[in-house]
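User: quick one
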Amino acid sequence: MMHPLKWPLFALPALALLTLPASAGQNVEWKDDGTVLIKLGEAYNNAVIQTTREELGTEFGPDKQPFKDVTISVTVNGAGPKGGISGPLYQFRPIWEELSGGKLNIVELPFAEHYTKMMLDLRNGTGQYDAFMVGAFWYGDIAPAGYAFPIDELNKSGKYPKWTYDDMPDSLRALHQWKGVGYGVLNDGDGQVLYYRSDVLADKTHQEAFKKEYGYDLPNPPQTWQQLLDVSKYFNGKNWDATDADPDSGTVLHLKVGEQGHYHFQTLSSSFVLNPGDKVTRTKNVYWFDPEDMKPLINSPGHVKALEFLQELHKTGPQAQVGWSLGEAWDYFLRGKAVFAFSWGDLGALCQDESRSKVKGKCSATAIPSSNEYYDFEKKEFVKLDKPRLVGNTVGGSWHGVISNFSANPEAAYSLLSLMAIKPASKLMATVGWDGVDPGFKYQFLKEDGGTADVEDYVKAGWDANDAKSYVHAYYQVFTAPVMMPYLRIPGSFEYWDILDKNLSATMSGSKTAQQALDETAQSWEAVTDRIGRDKQKADYQAAIGYTP
Amino acid sequence: MRWTGKIRFLFLAPAVIWVLAFTVFPLGYSLYLAFYKIEQKVEVKREKQPMLDAAGQPVLDDAGQPRTKNVVIKEQVNTATFIGLDNFKRMLTDTQVHEAVRVTLTFVLIAVPLELALGFLLAVLFNQHIFGRPILRAIMILPIFATPLAVGYTFFTIFYEVGGPLAWTGIPFLSNPTWALMSVIIVDVWQWTPFCFLVFLAALQGVPDELYEAARVDGANAWDMLKEVMLPLLIPTIVIVLLLRMAEALKLFDIPFALTGGGPGVATQPFSMLAFRTGLRFFDLGYASAMSYAFLAVIMIVITLFFRRLRANYG
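Assistant: Done. Structure below.
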């Protein structure tokens, strides 16, 4: 017989069950009116996402667990349960497991090994992993080889959580598709914008001193790279931030070899190189290769000038940044040590995290500056511009899920990835700094930019209103610019970029000149193209950039 | 009782299988890869098949319908084309290979002699009666037990140029190409000098006291004893340590991987890192195999010549 004192222990949970709404699991609550509440954990401050049965698709429901006993494995860059891109997987794991009845195995791999492990799995067709959180620059190696599972049918079926490519600007949509077929599930939007210290640029004393020294008004914010260099030079070495006694810097960069330094060069050089035009031709809107013969353009006078410019800009930051990854450079800006940083959306969100940042409320963003001249591929000379022209970019990985074609459970994998892609989840993730998910989709843009978000959405997530406004607008501008930096998505992209990266690093550390580094890059690229096959590369490159011979 | 012939083979089989599978086969296969270009094509088909329970009966879902599972059918076709010595010829014009060879040789030629010299001097010092010798000796050998990768990351924080513990020196430990290579050498010397020290100390302690006594009676000073007694007796040990360290140093990988990532540029990218990246990052497996075989051949030639010379000099 049960001891009388033990009765309350059993009675309490029973009472709780009786008082619950229509159906409530630990992480998902199904309301009678059709709304569904998804409860996130502490990492997201116990936020609750409100969605609907309709939005979750027909497969998930209070009495359904469509993938019971199914285990799926998803690889991701290793950053832990509260790290960029991997963090959201951990946070959504209990939710998806409750909805699906399946098990999610998160396979964290160091960035340097992720691509290798993925390709080994795909090349051998083992199907060990069901999905990969990929960088868009890996598409050239996985999509044309038939390693990726096309998702358009699953997306249209209405069975799984709903999201659409129509929410993406064309520039980002292109990164999730290959020859018009969808492979990638919406998650992260990557592109670089310029972050600047709004308080420092607005300082009257500095404005007067700058004008005296450079002969024109301190641009707030700079519109051209040349202006940015002047402002950077002016502030570099001065103790303009009173938080410590040490001198501060102009622009901080992350230039460590094997990491993401080459993206700085891509962003900066695009406006020195890209020739504007309505469509892609042999000389217009091309950056990487001549689409007719795959000869590298990387050592063109425009590229060389841009690299020389980057060397100058590097001098306005700490010398140590040659060995810095993203984290160190971001931290330097967040500690109030640099006026400028051009980087991804994570930085804007991290500015708002007062446990790391001293610059909340002073961290404005603007579209990336442009060069006041570019190299004309037809005339073979530099063309001066009267006014700055915006060149947008999607540099970075735009990290998102792609399903392996060897997966035995593509539907289960898709249901997980699409759950994380529904509008309210995606909106929430983009407002948080630590999760690595950056904005880029229509519902994350403000209404004045044709989106559906309000500044209040960001303020509720802890943002300073002015920082948020400038940040989202800057992203809208770089993703929808009339001239866009073309993304390299052909077989061997990783290798082409690695060669470029090493040569850039050698230039920034002073062991090669800009011309020498880019000439050697072009020479090595030729060898890679010949090895993979020039005709094959040409066909894939033409498809990737939308060039019609 | 004598084992019969067949049973002996049975007991040998695991070791033989292990060596064949994990040594002989990879060696043979990588040699094959060095001479062939492999192209892969894969076709994937899927079939829905009913799920069966342990009794072989169809598993039903909540609506009473049979549950199905996906079965992936793949057809993979590998095409191998003989390319002869192309991969080996490519190395002759590849600037990355030349640079990696330069980095590896610079590293070996500076780090290994330094480790031997410092290890020897420390061994001589610790061969004396000094205060707290057992404790100091134990502390001295601790670096050997650290994982090189962890050591690399630890020194990354020590050499951190903004706010790191050595930032006050103003030395660009990781951002200057020359200093970055020096930093890799410093870390390797820190980790492997204790190994040289330990072996030399053991050898020194094996030298009979009578020899020192006799030298002293003959009027030898400390320098004479070092030159005429210790060094000649330690030559065989020094040679062994030199070979072991050279073989290890030529395989340098972990420390630059963690400390510098091979940069700035390729200033600290040793040959083994280049081969690894070529093969397993860019999947140019044929070229990576050719690189590895060429490297192996060079090392074998150098070591053989070295041994021959030593044998000639010291019998």
